[in-house]
């Protein structure tokens, strides 16, 4: 028999608190007001000169994008879940509201950030909060990169030549141009072809938090962005990376600057690794494996695929994804503390 209660809504919320709402932990530890203020500084809210409905508060929209990245939802799915899901409504602040951001509102907010060049600001703002909580980059850092696929494009030979020159074929209608990603590129890994972008990043050894990231077309080699994601704020000068980052000249240059670079040795044709080199690779791998845990977490959050078109949107998406990972990791550190390494 189904029990009817006038207080069913309050009883469900109380039960949700007893079970444990992961989003409530985010609200407990993250200063979303400060994040919203930094977003408004980087990408000012639109004026009301043209009239119309006032935009939703920036703090509310920041929370929406965090939930969207945490659960890997499209704009359409996010709209539905905000209307349907209790925990989302509570976290975003819509329990008593008759209105909720729709798919167009969410898309417009993200476009506002892209046009203002503020894609990196949320990631930087989150990292500043990590430091205020005492989670400074410690113990050295691991550098790695991961391919992020996008839907594959079908182009004829002439179109490929034009796109390869970073141009748009003149014969394409506007509707076709909106659905063609001409900035994503093909690459191969372990004999398999991928089409999309590449996320490079550095992760501190102590807390497994992402400290710096860079987004590029997938065809750009990992090693090109090694120094770009190198985190000078880390308290240790040790850096670990796999054999894809081998570059003797760069290692010498960084060594003179005080860095202790630990990059796995790479075998050459007809010249296998010595036993000593194999043992060294194993020692590096035991530390470097911690960065794989981070990229695996990003994959679980949907960080291994994109629904957007173009490098600018990919950059926004992946910076928010990395920022959301760091916020989730912050909550974990607050409740369980870092594991020994």
From TrEMBL:
One GO BP: DNA transposition
Keyword DNA-binding attributed: yes
Pfam families referenced in this protein's UniProt entry, alphabetically: DDE_Tnp_1 (PF01609), DUF772 (PF05598)
InterPro entries registered for this protein in UniProt: Transpos_IS5 (IPR047959), Transposase_11 (IPR002559), Transposase_InsH_N (IPR008490)
A GO molecular function held by the record: transposase activity
Transposase InsH N-terminal domain: residues covered: 15-112
Cited PANTHER family: TRANSPOSASE INSH FOR INSERTION SEQUENCE ELEMENT IS5A-RELATED
Family assignment from sequence similarity: Belongs to the transposase 11 family.
Protein name from the UniProt record: Transposase
Native species: Pandoraea faecigallinarum
